[in-house]
Amino acid sequence: MMRKIASILLFIILLWFLIFSTLFAQTKNRFPKPEFESGYIQPQTTTPAPREAALEAIDVAVLVVTLGLASYFALKTRSRRALFFLTIFSLVYFGFYRKGCVCSVGAIQNMVFALVDSTYAIPVTVLLFFILPLVFALFFGRTFCAAVCPLGAIQELIILRPMKISAWLAQTLGIIPYVYLGLTILFAATGSAFVICRLDPFVGFFRFGASFDMLLLGACFLLMGLFIARPYCRFLCPYGVLLGWMSRFSKWHVTITPDDCIQCRLCEESCPFGAIQTPAPKVVPESHRLSKRRLAILIGLLPVLILVGGWIGANLDTPLSRLHPTIRLAEQVIVEDIGKTNETTEESRAFRSTGTPSTELFNAALSVREQFETGGRLLGGFLGLMFGLKLVSLSIRRTRKDYEPDRTTCFSCARCFSYCPQEHLRLKKS
């Protein structure tokens, strides 16, 4: 059974990166190309139109209220039913009514672009949608994931027969969100693309329209989500990385039991996300010495992993930079100039019609390539650091007396509450 699950996961991940890789070879414009000939009809864009200020204020107010309710239901009333109905509301409002925009996940790109481009004024609504879930996570854990995020909500509601996957596979796939986050930042910082918006697997359902490839990808995620609980949230979502960091240090967080844990083990298999940590006894001195030695070796390897990752990232500047329109245009102009192709593109014809010397275009492309070399080095170093820290965290054995939620990966969904006898006693008393 586990082999079948692993095969399904591998197929979906390969499909995702296959579609992602096609961006480097053939990208689609987010907006229609201008046409100056007569008779041209401007096609409708699938991006939602800008909202009025009053309506944007309502969106922010709804976000604050739903975050507050999710935190209250998860930590105070400990009500799975209330979270379930709040999930439905969030899916309807933030998903289908607001068409997945503004999206806290996609707001990462706006934040990065605003930091690198002083001419870009980030909308206040986007800023708040990015910050507020992180603030709530810092105080109450990932209650945004519990019942507010529309991407999580659509997956939450279709979980049919969740199956657990092995810990090693979950840890391995858990590296992918860091890669996705790093690439998102790199492409946004260089002005290449907002890849989260372009590759959102569920926005096509929210807007009732998308390319066939994206609809197929979203359908695959939903189909897999029947058996692998929240695959996008656990193994791809870049915003989940930031939420996990905040939740790790949250002031308050959901607990499996409202009282002292009696270690009945009933909750052990209740979490479909593998976010329950089992009791861990104190290690014997011999094992403790070996663990310390292994930990020291891994910590010593961190600088090596950072340097190797930086070197690999810097050498990926050429393929990564092809997502940037200036690079693609320069490469097209070069192959046309040297006679390798007789076909021209709309972009190359538009460029030549301006009378701009090709050398200016090539210098601009060289500047972009240098940005990708620097950004690739930082990206590789970041991924090397994250990979090393992942190994370090796996080598640290923490003593635990009770069953506890993993603060980084727990979605505060409240499923485990109903398995706890202490929770049943609390309900009888109330």
Written overview of the protein:
There is one protein chain. With 430 residues, the chain is mostly helical. The protein has two domains: 262 residues, no CATH class; 110 residues, no CATH class. The chain has 20 helices and two strands. It has a two-stranded antiparallel ribbon with strand order 1-2. Helix 15 packs antiparallel against helix 19. The protein is globular and about 80 Å long.
Largest sheet entry: 2 strands, antiparallel
**Which class of secondary structure composition applies to the elements?**
mainly alpha
* Overall structural domain count: 2
Strand adjacency order, main sheet? 1-2
Provide the succession of SSEs: HHHHHHHHHHHHHHEHHHHHEH
Number of helices, where a helix is a run of at least 4 consecutive DSSP H or I residues = 20
Low-pLDDT stretches are: 1-34
**What general form does the structure show?**
globular
Cα-atom Rg, whole angstroms? Answer: 24 Å
Beta strand %:
under 5%
Compute the separation of the termini in Å: 42 Å
Number of strands: 2
Q: Which bin fits the share of residues in helices?
A: 55-70%
Report the average pLDDT across residues: 86
Short key terms for the protein model shown above:
about 425 residues; mainly alpha; two-stranded antiparallel sheet; 2 strands; disordered N terminus
In short:
The chain is an all-alpha fold and 430 residues long. It has 20 helices and two strands.
List the helices and strands and how they pair.
Elements: H1 2-25, H2 53-76, H3 80-97, H4 107-116, H5 124-140, H6 143-147, H7 150-156, H8 167-173, H9 176-189, H10 195-198, H11 203-206, H12 212-225, H13 231-235, H14 238-248, E1 276-277, H15 285-314, H16 317-321, H17 325-337, H18 346-353, H19 358-395, E2 404-405, H20 421-429
Antiparallel strand pairs: 1-2
Helix pairs in contact: 1-12, 2-3, 2-5, 3-7, 4-5, 4-9, 5-14, 9-14, 9-19, 15-19, 17-19
